[in-house]
Amino acid sequence: MPIAETLRTADIHVAPASVRLDAVGKSFGKAGQSVDVLTNISLEVAAGEVVVLLGPSGCGKSTLLRLIAGLETATVGSVTIDGHEVTGIDTRCGVVFQEPRLFPWKSIEDNVVVGARGARSSETVAALLAAVGLSGFEKHLPRQVSGGMAQRAALARGLAGFPGVLLLDEPFAALDALTRLTMQDLLLDVAQETGATVVLVTHDIDEALHLADRIVVLGERGQGIAEIVTVDHPRPRDRSHPGLAPLRDELLARFGIHP
Length: 259
Hints:
Blueprint: H1 3-9, E1 19-28, E2 35-45, E3 50-54, H2 61-69, E4 76-81, E5 84-85, E6 93-96, H3 108-116, H4 122-131, H5 147-160, E7 165-169, H6 177-194, E8 197-202, H7 205-211, E9 214-218, E10 225-230, H8 244-254
Parallel strand pairs: 3-8, 3-9, 6-7, 7-8
Antiparallel strand pairs: 1-2, 1-4, 4-5, 9-10
Helix pairs in contact: 1-4, 1-6, 3-4, 3-5, 4-5
């Protein structure tokens, strides 16, 4: 069954939530020896929007994602989800990391159940696994499936709590090229059918152009937001659409790469 149909049949959807960052800064280290990783970050992400964070290594992309999730606390400024301040690990967020981070002793099914926080039925977990193409692998251990399958299981686990905000930290970076493209389309299908707000970190400009409604470009460490690029092309989006070429050239030039 196609992913979209599986999600619709199971009535898998969420209440998308907005995200707001007001003058957020984050420093690490002791007073007098601290390093500013993020400075004066102000950003609004609309409910149901797909926003991609793009920037050089060490600029604070992952830290920004962790601040939204409540895994880190801002040094200054505030982070709110649907108008409510994030003060700790926030159950309104589902997080998918670069590595699947599955419990090796638990089956694929049981790993997804962990993400459900005990609030979802076995039928819902089965529907999520079907949606990411893992029906028939419920009882397999993580070591018994491929890297792409493990990452799909991580996506299902991230969705299992029906989060209003889905946060992904370079979730496809370790995958082979073909699996990566498949996972990108899977993410878009899931986002569209569930209604989740998505914030994703990547180093890949083409991935950003394919996925994003807006691309938030961060400057070097401590410099904050350098630019916000709107990708005004409807989905399903053709990766070779000529309208994407000028945006690609603009982004490459910002990183000192001439097409």
